[in-house]
Input
Amino acid sequence: MRVAINRVRLLEQLSRTVRFVSSNEHVRVLECVYIEASADRISIIGGEGTTFFMTEMHTEHVQIQQSGRVAVQAKLLADIVRKMQENEIILYNEETNDRLTVTTPSARSTFMLQLLPADEYPLPERMEEKTLFTIHGGYLKAAIRQTLFAIQKKEQMPTLTGVKMEVQNNTLTMIGCDRYRMGKVKQTLKSESSAASNGNCSWPGHKRA
Output
């Protein structure tokens, strides 16, 4: 993998992703951020096993010279990028070694970070883009607050730590339940795509972006 990225934009994406990465002594790869460079974009993923944050940068913001994927310690990479001075950051890794080189065009600042096997990173399932809708941010926050109290706090039953979201007839319905309490909210959507006339998903209610 070899890519050149604007430092400010990379730091912005890493800072958002690192918020979802936590120390995990049992699964060390979850302390990493997963970076994949394809033909037209870079995907950055971070999470703690049940909750993941995914972001992408397309070719208008990044130069992809060679595709590839790596798993590198998230907070360390973010700290290094934050302290570098030049506007452009170059990330590259040779297939023959297990290190990611972080440098600048002038090579004044160069760091080499130990990689973990990218194949071991537990990538979340990508949701099919069938349920697309637009809702006012304040209404969504209010709906989350009104269902969050009813979710299961213990992770022995992961399904109950989430909130069910259903989109139908231009209405978003959110339900949280821990088997003893239930919170249910309905919000009218600003818009709903024709492909999303009926869809549902869930998200882990114990994590907030």
